[in-house]
Design brief:
- Belongs to the non-lysosomal glucosylceramidase family.
- InterPro entries: 6-hairpin_glycosidase_sf, 6hp_glycosidase-like_sf, B_Glucosidase_GBA2-typ, GH116_catalytic, GH116_N, Non-lysos_glucosylceramidase.
- Residues 436-802 form the Glycosyl-hydrolase family 116 catalytic region domain.
- Its EC number is 3.2.1.45.
- It is a single chain.
- By secondary structure, this protein is of the alpha+beta class.
- The protein has two domains: 73-366, Distorted Sandwich (Beta-galactosidase, Chain A, domain 5), CATH 2.70.98; 431-834, Glycosyltransferase.
- Strands 1, 7, 8, 9, 10, 12, 13, 14, 16, 18 and 19 form an eleven-stranded antiparallel β-sheet that branches. A five-stranded antiparallel β-sheet has the order 6-5-11-17-15, with helices on one face.
- Helix 20 packs antiparallel against helix 21 (755-772).
- The longest helix has 27 residues, at 362-388.
- The chain is globular, with a radius of gyration of 27 Å.
- The two termini are 36 Å apart.
Length: 835
């Protein structure tokens, strides 16, 4: 393998193993009194539902009373997409398990990890330590020593890989552990796998031979109360080129097989521990490694199955000559092929079972991973290299782009094949037949799959890297639009009793994993989302964006068939939205409620956000109708668009920016006011809807106020700002920075060649998240003044829109470079703007 493919990259999360972040913010936040007054009825209804959920032993979809405080420990998680993930801490922890669909378990499992043993030529152990530096429990495995000098050990995380460098030069050894997960753009088979590789580089930098052992131990379950409720057993195996241990257990009554494996090599010996008690002092396996450098094949108890906790391990021992490097290759697999949700009877097969089957797949995956991980790394490097080597991109962005991508796999993600009965109902051309069904949570705390108003921003990560997952998701929503559910629910915000799902509306989400998602859609109980003013427009805009963006994709071109399949749904939701035009000027109005993605920020009358999305979606319908030769519809939408554009300009443009809405709070400068224009730019259009002069003035105003006048430009773009007054404090969300919106704003700026604005806008925020408060790999939805909200959020995946804008700009400049000489001045101006 080429050296640069496996080398520690220059960019990524880079910390020593004794690193402590300088600031530790809480999530808890007391709103202002006037905000509390507005939200008080909501809170009272919420408490009523919360108590009811306790009585009926159900979990509430958003638990506001048990907020997750950031742990400041996370590194790159392991696992492919939709197979369940396991978090890793940069200090060596195995933590934040997402093996139960849609749920996070934040336990740190003491028994899971690596141990190094170094012996000299006399077979005397000169060093033994766990390869971790986090604070371990004094009750469990307390004989396991942590002897690393953490200040000499270094972690680099660049998703989906990480490198941990251990400086053991006092003992003649330098270690590097390279962790690899198969998250590979446009590769659907390997990206679905529940596995990770750990490749160890053992470099003897001394003058004497060293005998080095790397041991890998693992326990059943996720270290919670349910671990002891099912039988466990272990089994030794040797399979083709691998050898290891399988641990049979259950996760929330769903069968799961852990496989710990190492590749067999002539100069390496593999030993196995089939059983030790993870709740003991750990002396037996520890002493065996210390005395012999291997496990003495510790066996199980007299019974075949253990009710309770069980742990096992493998150890690879190798002699390393002076100046030489040896590379043990280890693999972890968690084969949990069939899962179900809390209230549903349906059994779902994970997507990887399409290739590896639903029974005894663990060893097949082990073999596949050991044989193919080098190709995975080459593909990952090929994906990342153009960004990492682009000298015009700032370093902080290079790291953030890939590290924010963690959420595609680590967002409580599920990816299933279709059941036989459902498959028979769909045409063979339906992409779900081939690519299955995909879902990811709004956040680790907001337990709703495919929250659509947020996915609107995040979807760039899918469309640009796994377009067929986006395509599958869109077909699900297309079907959901025509569905209805007459279950009556009382909404938290206003007490309105409304149907769970209204026909001809885009749903907010496709369900709660603790109910029966994909069947019980719209788990969100705060508002009647059939009355939301942004969802319908966002569906239409995504349809056009996907079509335009994938035109030249070899594996994911959506084509006109996609437009044909989506058109009826697009037309239906646009007709529904026309009822929101209360004054008959063809521009929709907000209802004086938080009836859009800013669900605690009231908009009244026509608004920059929803109105802008509406006129952008009208233009999208004109384009789609034209592509499909629907001339009558094209003319109809074009006529509505012209009237709506005029109303939008007359009602909201004030000469410097678009007013927030038509209320007494209209003067608030909204960071997201150009959302509709941004999406049209992402579709490849220019100023067909929003005048260029308006766009430039608005972006300048936003940058001057929402970015530079908030925290001196070091924290992203504040959602609302009032000129000459300061931050808009009228609503809880108006005085928040939304991480995903800040990325989308920066993308819009780059589309307009305002590169310096863009990098300043996101640079301070990325520094805050990465270097000051330690929220990498759990990026929150919102940042306030020394607090945050909702860790592990979907919307920051919108950083891929920044990359899209950057690639558009580079292509545009390259195109203009080939223009005739008379156009050279215009080309020079573009170069200066992009500098």
């Amino acid at each position: 393998m080429e050296e640069n493919v496996i080398a520690v990259p220059k960019y990524g999360l880079k910390v020593n193993l004794n690193h402590k972040y300088p600031e530790n913010w809480p999530q808890a936040y007391l709103p202002r009194w006037k905000q509390i007054w507005v939200l008080l009825p909501l809170f009272l209804r919420y408490v009523f539902d919360y108590i009811k959920s306790i009585i009926f032993r159900q979990s509430i979809v958003i638990d506001l009373l048990k907020l997750v405080r950031c742990k400041q420990i996370y590194g790159v998680p392991i696992g492919g997409i939709g197979a369940g993930t396991i978090g890793r801490g940069y200090r060596g922890e195995f933590c934040r398990f997402q093996l139960k669909p849609g749920n996070c378990d934040y336990s740190i499992v003491e028994a899971n990890g690596f141990i190094v043993t170094i012996k000299d030529t006399s077979d005397v152990t000169i060093f033994q330590s766990t390869l971790s530096t986090y604070k371990r429990s004094k009750k469990l495995l307390h004989t396991w020593e942590q002897r690393l000098d953490a200040s000499k050990c270094r972690y680099t995380g660049l998703y989906p890989r990480s490198w941990t460098e251990y400086d053991l030069s006092d003992y003649g050894i330098k270690l590097v552990c390279r962790q690899v997960s198969p998250v590979i753009p446009h590769n659907y088979k390997d990206s679905s796998l529940p596995c990770a590789m750990f490749i160890w580089s053992i470099h003897n930098i001394g003058n004497e031979e060293r005998n080095v052992t790397i041991a890998f131990t693992f326990k059943n379950g996720m270290s919670n109360k349910t671990d002891k409720k099912s039988p466990c057993s272990t089994q030794s195996f040797s399979y083709l080129d691998s050898s290891g241990v399988m641990l049979y257990n259950s996760i929330e009554k769903m069968p799961c097989t852990y496989a710990l494996a190492a590749k067999m090599k002539d100069n390496m010996s593999i030993s196995k521990c089939l059983y030790f008690d993870p709740n003991s002092d750990g002396s037996e396996p520890w002493n065996q490694l210390y005395n012999k450098g291997n496990f003495e094949n510790l066996t199980k108890t007299e019974i075949d199955q253990v009710y309770g906790d069980i742990a096992c391990g493998i150890a690879v021992q190798v002699k390393v000559s002076p100046g030489n490097i040896e590379e043990p290759e280890m693999c972890l697999v968690w084969d949990m092929p069939i899962v179900n949700f809390t209230l549903g009877d349906t059994k779902f097969s994970k997507f990887y079972t399409k290739y590896f089957g639903t029974e005894k797949a663990a060893l097949k995956i082990v073999n596949h991973a050991l044989k193919n991980y080098k190709e995975w790394e080459s593909a990952i490097y090929k994906w990342q290299e153009p960004v990492l080597n682009d000298i015009k991109l700032p370093g902080f962005y290079k790291a953030a782009l890939f590290n924010e991508t963690y959420f595609v796999a680590d967002g409580g993600t599920v990816w299933f094949t279709l059941g036989e009965e459902e498959s028979e109902k769909l045409p063979v051309t339906d992409p779900r037949q081939k690519y299955g069904r995909f879902g990811y949570l709004e956040s680790h705390e907001y337990r709703m799959y495919n929250t659509y108003d947020v996915h609107f921003y995040a979807s760039f990560a899918l469309t640009m890297n796994w377009p067929n997952l986006q395509k599958s998701l869109q077909y699900d929503f297309k079907d959901c639009i025509f569905s209805q559910n007459h279950e009556r629910r009382c909404m938290w915000f206003d007490g309105k009793v409304a149907d769970r799902k209204v026909k001809n509306t885009v749903p907010h989400d496709v369900g709660d994993p603790n109910e029966d998602p994909f069947l019980l859609i719209n788990a969100y109980p705060a508002h009647d989302v059939s009355d939301w003013k942004d969802l319908n427009s966002k569906f239409v805009l995504q349809v056009l964006r996907d079509y335009k963006l994938t035109e030249h994709f070899e594996d994911g071109s959506f084509g006109k068939q996609y437009l044909e399949d989506m058109y009826e749904a697009c037309h239906a939701v646009m007709q529904r939205s026309m009822h929101f035009d209360t004054d008959h000027d063809c521009l929709i109005e907000n209802s004086g409620a938080p009836d859009q993605t800013y669900d605690a920020w009231i908009m009244t009358g026509s608004s920059a956000y929803c109105g802008g999305l509406w006129i952008a979606s009208l233009y999208a319908m004109v384009v789609i109708a034209r592509e499909l030769n629907k001339n009558k519809d094209e003319s109809m939408y074009a006529a509505i668009l012209e009237k709506a554009k005029s109303a939008f300009e007359n009602k909201l443009w004030n000469g410097k920016y678009y007013n927030f809405d038509c209320s007494e709070l209209a003067s608030s400068i909204m960071a997201d006011q150009l959302c509709g224009h941004w999406y049209l730019r992402a579709c490849g259009f220019d100023y067909e809807v929003f005048p260029k002069n308006n766009v430039e003035h608005a972006l300048n105003t936003i940058f001057e106020n929402n970015v530079m006048k908030y925290q001196n430009g070091t924290s992203g773009a504040i959602n609302g700002y009032i000129h000459n007054k300061g931050v808009d404090i009228t609503a809880l969300q108006s005085e928040e920075v939304w991480t995903g919106v800040t990325y989308s704003l920066a993308s819009c700026m780059i589309f307009e060649n305002l590169n310096s604005f863009a990098w300043k806008t996101i640079g301070g925020m990325v520094d805050l998240l990465t270097n000051r408060i330690g929220l990498t790999f759990e990026t929150p939805e919102a940042l306030g003044v020394r607090h945050y909200r909702s860790v592990g959020y979907m919307r920051p995946l919108s950083i891929w829109a920044v990359q899209l804008a950057w690639e558009y700009q580079k292509d545009s400049i390259a195109h203009k470079a080939s223009f005739p000489i008379e156009d050279i001045e215009e080309f020079k101006n573009d170069i200066e703007k992009s500098a």
